[in-house]
Amino acid sequence: GESVGLHLPTLSVQEGDNSIINCAYSNSASDYFIWYKQESGKGPQFIIDIRSNMDKRQGQRVTVLLNKTVKHLSLQIAATQPGDSAVYFCAESAQGAQKLVFGQGTRLTINP
Amino acid sequence: DGGITQSPKYLFRKEGQNVTLSCEQNLNHDAMYWYRQDPGQGLRLIYYSQIVNDFQKGDIAEGYSVSREKKESFPLTVTSAQKNPTAFYLCASSPRRSGQETQYFGPGTRLLVL
Q1: Chains A and B: how many Cβ contacts under 8 Å?
Q2: Is the pLDDT assigned to residue B76 strictly greater than 80?
Q3: Are residues A102 and B42, on separate chains, in Cβ contact within 8 Å?
Q4: Is the CB of residue B55 less than 8 Å from the CB of residue B66?
């Protein structure tokens, strides 16, 4: 049946500071990972992805770090801006899988 | 102007009624997906299709049905068997059939029960 709604983990940061959003995964066979940003009432937007043959990948103001040893993924946002306020989801997929598995999400709020 | 469109933005369902949510993409993507999102929660996969005339159940397919008669279209029907349909429904597509591809999302349809 339906699970009771859970409060999303929330991260509050000062405008201009760096944000680090974490994601743990359990499937050791997962080798593709992706971060999405979802603003209120909208569909998720792709931010950045990484495959398991890398442990770091950089985009514009964002960096994804992958630690396969402890099955941990993080998204770093540099110089956080008000427009970065959103819910951030990580997703994973294993070789041969036909779908992504999404995490619960983290709400990022920016303090002025 | 390429992308994924979903309609309507809001949909109201009466008890016992079937309703159909539209999803269209002009990206020439092979794979399409339907997700359900409840408040404060992540995305749960309802159905997906990797090729025309074929689709697979996701994690919460009960009470839903889909069709994939055209590559660009993947409508979702919420049947009367779905007892708690109130949610935000998201459609996505990806270029190829692998699960290891970026999925691109539409703007979503919010379904409410009268």
Answers
A1: 68
A2: yes
A3: yes
A4: yes
